[in-house]
Amino acid sequence: MSQSATLSIMRVLTFGWDYPPMRNGGLGVACYGLTRELVDQGIDVIFVLPRSQPTLGSSRFIFADVEKNIRVYEVPSAIAPYQSSQSVQTMFDETGTRVVSHHTMIDAVNQFAARGATIAATEEFDVIHAHDWTSYLAGVAAKRVSGKPLILHVHATTFDQAAGDNIDPVIFDIERNAFNYADKVVTVSQFTKDILTSKHGIAPEKIEVVHNGCDTYEPPRYTPTLQEWREEGKRIVLYHGRITIQKGVDYFVRAARRVIDEDPNVMFVISGWGDMTNQIIAQVGEMGLSGHVLFAGALWEEERDQMYQSVDLVVMPSVSEPFGLVPLEAMQHGTPSLISKQSGVAEVMTHVLKVDFWDVDEMANKILATLRYGVMQKQLIAQGREELPRFSWKHAAEKVSQLYQSLRNLITS
Amino acid sequence: MLSVCPYFHVHQPYRIKRYRVFDIGKDNQYFNDGSATDLNNQRIVEKVANKSYRPTNAVLKQLLEEHPDFCFALSFSGTVLEQFAAYAPDVLESFQELVATGRVEILADTYYHSLAFFYSVPEFERQVALHQEKIQSLFGVTPKVFRNTELSYRNDLAKWCEDNGYTGIMAEGWEPVLGWRSPNYLYRPVGCERIKVLLKNYKLSDDIAFRFGNRAWESFPLDADTFAKWVHAHHGDGNTINLFMDYETFGEHQWEDTGIFDFLRAVPHRLSAHDDTSFKTPSQTIEAYDAVGEIDVPDVLTWADTDRDLTAWVGNDIQRDAITAIYQMETDILATNHEELIETWRKLQTSDHFYYMCTKWFNDGDVHAYFSPYESPYDAYIAFMNSLSDLQLRVRTLQKEPVSEISLDTPELAAPEDSKEDTVSGSTQEPVITTDTHQWFRSTMKASLEWMQKTIARVTGWFRSPKR
After folding, report:
1. A87: how many CB neighbours lie within 10 A of its CB?
2. d(CA A276, CA B150)
3. Residues A210, A391: contact at Cβ < 8 Å?
């Protein structure tokens, strides 16, 4: 490649952990949406994933578990200590199959970092971009071997997962050290930027907020599900997401009790799975809500879309949500949302109802008001759909692309 | 000869607290927020009294004393006058002192700062009458010049004002209406013979009301000399410069640190430094000049934002839903004769409630482009509709209590609302046959029973009401 070509075309070495069509959650969806638009804008993206998998889109992929990438490479000392961490985390896919074949999550992360360094030593690129904590060390390693500028993209922090200060100290150390070592940090919201400045002590000037986007296509309409309930004139409220402490499902159940006391004609659907599932099922029983709450399991793709289209309101009661794609997805399907103010998406979405996650009474009030006042429900949908194009991945990619340019200029000048 | 006609509008609504679905049927106080938020009406009135009403009235008083030519007009909503009496009586007294000089004209208005003219003319007329009584009782004057809520104006409103003896009416001097004509003259509304329209010179008015403290404005900081020069430039090109604005411009919209009080203190002197410039009240202006032409405003014109229409109040579905719902209650609520209920219903008509539900600037992502004590237009709508639901419930309860035969004597009470009612237990309607003596006795007894129940309801309402 000629000198002039390498100067004009921006090439980015990107590290991520998940990528569609694998079903793991919001991180992969966000990486795909952003990468697709970056490629569209003429950025040359090399996307490095920890293990071989099918992928969507036209960027170039490198799988770190492929033979030629697995070479013994001395792990830079700055990231070595984490190898001794005792935190055991294992990832499974939705069928229960292990997708990470390591003893601990941290082993996997460190191994990814080591291979990242190997890849960085052999590839040519201008900027390094690493998504979420599992890739931060790979990004750090790549910067150490190449000297290229490093951008860390924060989709969540350990404070979100813990829904408070009961954090994983190992992950916190990785986050803080990596943020300090990076040239720029991107957060998906002001909400997350505030966590980084107050908890990790990162200077606000170093952090750029790039809100996530969503796809703006018109989804197909499916035949509604839960037909019997609809025929009985029941109103349906949906929770869709992982059932973990971060997501605030317990507050949703308490609000459901308050709603049922006022209007027994309302039904609640909980779609998702997670480490709090049994606790939530028990809570529903204890609160006498078994006849009003349906556990639908984890719904994906068509089943999920069909559910979005069949309900009157979607609630996202998260305790701490860096962004939160659920209300945008629901709006694509023509369903309004009630979302927690402790979310990044609340900063950008206006035709949506908002509540503090802990304010169970207000959550119930807004659920009831939406079901009571049909004019408001219709307006939330009509005006909400009009504002959807503002949340495009194209817009997010433009901001990231500018960031790449500014960093390349910074280093080369 | 050029005169300047300053007019300041004084208003505070009764903001609705965060009233929830669960409160319906349990709490009938919608306006008594006690929190440290901007929904607390007492807190707002006390705050604005300190920032605006007290210091501004002190300046205006001084100007009237020092400057024999200085005069101006004020308009008050009934809701702000009530709140002054309750929370800041000294402010009310200071306004009374200003009016007692005889050089401060008070304008006619709707008591509840409502858009009633566009939804129910009879209700509008009742609110204008209530306002007139209030102004007479507090200030001892009867207004002759009319201004409608948010300076809203239309041909038929001007006609109504003429038919009801007003000599003038205020409106926005908006180019799409005026065409090539200047707002600095008086005009005659189409279809009228006597009444004159005073048009707001919005450029000069908004230089003070909106732009004064804006550091990005090319004329910042505006001093009294410059402003006087802009006004004097209209000599030979008009009779009157009508400077109409919210009273709260002084100290509340433009904070003291912008220098707004120094400006107010200085500007009358600078304006009359020019030999041929004087001050006139709206009535004096009407007396002094003839109408130079006719203006035709078939669609509502207001002084609001860039659209100058009612879209800030009734531009989206939730706003139209809320305002329609409140006026749909008119027949039923008046039939209750329940003073407190009717008063509450009127407080819910105040235009601010609908303004808080406005979403027209929302899609630009600029959610702070308008002023609202609510976090979102939807929060405003929910609080309003929940309160309204409670009010409807109270009306229905009253309708059920006094024997249901009322609806036979006065058929208009059997409003369509009844058909939507939940199952009414034990209130079957029986026909009254007056030819039968026994039936006559029954109906007489029921009538007196009904009267007693109404009285009890009224007295109970009296005690429930916090402000009596």
Report:
1. 12
2. 54
3. no
Encoding tokens for residue B105? 């004209």
Boundaries of every domain in chain A: 3-213+392-412, 227-390
Nearest to B22 among A365, A378, A387 (CB): A365
B286 within 8 A of B196, measured Cβ to Cβ: yes
Q: Report the residue count for chain A.
A: 413
DSSP string, A72-133: --PPPGGGGGGGG-------B-TTS-BS--SSSHHHHHHHHHHHHHHHHHH---SEEEEESH
Establish whether domains A3-213+392-412 and A227-390 are of one fold.
yes
Find chain B residues with C-beta within 8 A of A376's C-beta: 318, 321, 378, 381-382, 385
> Residue A108 CB: number of other CB atoms within 10 A?
21
Pairwise CA distance, residues A336 & A376, whole Å: 10
Please report the pLDDT score of residue A59 as a whole number. Answer: 78
**Percent of chain A with pLDDT strictly greater than 70:** 88
Contacts for A296 with CB less than 8 Å, ≥ 6 apart: A269, A270, A271, A307
For B171-218, write each residue's pLDDT tens digit: 999 999 999 999 999 999 999 999 999 999 999 999 999 999 999 999
Cβ distance A351 to B362 less than 8 Å, yes or no, reads: yes
- State both tokens at A80: 């070595």
SS (H, E, C) B308-361: CCCHHHHCCHHHHHHHHHHHHCHHHHHHHCCHHHHHHHHHCCEHHHHHCCCCCC
The pLDDT-based confidence of B432 (bands split at 50, 70, 90) is very low
Q: Which residues of B touch A379 (CB under 8 A)?
A: 316-318, 359
Residues of chain B neighbouring A386 (CB-CB closer than 8 A): 363
Contacts of A350 in chain B (CB under 8 A): 359, 362-363, 365, 367, 376
> What residue has token string 């029954």?
B442
- Which residues have a Cβ under 8 Å from the Cβ of B397 and sit 6 or more positions away? none
In order of B41, B54, B295, the CA distances from B89 in angstroms are 15, 11, 41
CATH 3.90.870.10 fits A3-213+392-412, yes or no: no
- Interface check for B363 against chain A (CB to CB < 8 A): the answer is yes
Residue holding tokens 């800030």? B312
The CATH topology of domain A227-390 is: Rossmann fold (3.40.50)
Q: Which domains, and CATH codes, for chain B?
A: 2-295 (3.20.110.20), 315-464 (no CATH)
DSSP B434: T
Q: How far apart are CA A109 and CA A22, in angstroms?
A: 19
Q: Is the peptide bond before A21 cis (omega within 30 degrees of 0)?
A: yes
Say yes or no for a CB contact (<8 Å) between B363 and A366.
Answer: no
Contact A350 B363 (CB under 8 A): yes
Optimal mutation site among B24, B319, B382, B385, interface A, most CBs of chain A within 10 A? B382
- For A24, the 3-state DSSP assignment is coil
CA distance B269 to B63: 9
Q: Convert the pLDDT of each residue in B375-428 to its tens digit.
A: 999 999 999 999 999 999 999 999 887 554 444 444 444 444 444 444 344 444
Report the distance separating Cα B332 and Cα B459, nearest Å: 19
Quick one: tokens of A341?
């103010």
**Token couple for B313:** 């109040």
